[in-house]
Amino acid sequence: MVRRVRLQHSIVVLLLALGLAGCHDGNEMDGIRTENAKLRQRLDSDEAKIADLQKEIGDLKFSVEEVHSGVSNLEEAKVQNDARRGSAADADNVEAIRLAISQCVKQVRANPNQGAFNLVLPAFDAYYNPATHQVQDNVTYAQQKPARYAFKKCMAERGIVVGQ
């Protein structure tokens, strides 16, 4: 950017010099000198603006690096905090989920009026998968969907949200 401005300045100076060589009138020379002075002043102003913008860009780069570092530190702290939160609390939570699953599966199996095809419902089963941290069931057919609905409703009543 600075080189381009300097090149433009050089071209202006060259054109002025060529103009002066063919110029014989004093008024014309004064006009050219005035124009040249204005162009030099504008060039100096533009160079000062460029320097200010380059400093601003440097400051912004530094700010972005600080924010990025802060985010990285927060992510690392979250991972460490999650790891520290302990298996004891997780084990208690898993046991509560397993107990709720057991109770809700019994409730679904005990109520044969959940759907049109009562023969399918007694085979309903669900379990907690510790690898995915999700409750899964064995619903594969459309006729079993009323059982899944009843199971999810039962789990929700116990404060456990089941996806799928």
Question: Which features would summarize this protein structure in a list?
Answer:
4 helices; two-stranded antiparallel ribbon; mainly alpha; 2 strands
Nutshell version of this structure?
By secondary structure, the protein is mostly helical. The chain has helices spanning 2-21, 26-84, 87-110, 145-157, and strands spanning 126-129, 134-137. The protein has a two-stranded antiparallel ribbon.
Describe this structure in words.
By secondary structure, the chain is mostly helical. The protein has two domains: 2-83; 87-157. Helices cover 71% and strands 5% of the residues. The protein is built from four helices and two strands. The chain has helices at residues 2-21, 26-84, 87-110, 145-157, and strands spanning 126-129, 134-137. Strands 1-2 form a two-stranded antiparallel ribbon. Strand 1 (126-129) and strand 2 form a beta hairpin. The longest helix has 59 residues, at 26-84. The radius of gyration is 39 Å and the shape is rod-shaped. It starts with a helix and ends in a 7-residue tail after the last helix.
Please give the structural blueprint.
Blueprint lengths: L1 H20 L4 H59 L2 H24 L15 E4 L4 E4 L7 H13 L7
Antiparallel strand pairs: 1-2
Helix pairs in contact: 1-2, 3-4
Can you summarize the main beta sheet?
Answer: 2 strands, antiparallel
Q: Quick one: how many beta strands?
A: 2
Q: State the domain count.
A: 2
Distinct helical segment count: 4
In whole angstroms, the N-to-C terminal distance is 58 Å
Beta-strand share of residues: under 5%
**Mean pLDDT score:** 78
What structural category arises from helix and sheet content?
mainly alpha
> Which parts are unreliable, with pLDDT below 50 for 5 consecutive residues or more?
85-89
* Largest sheet strand order: 1-2
Instruction: Give Rg in angstroms.
Output: 39 Å
From the spread of the alpha carbons, the general shape counts as rod-shaped
The percentage helix is: over 70%
H-E order: HHHEEH
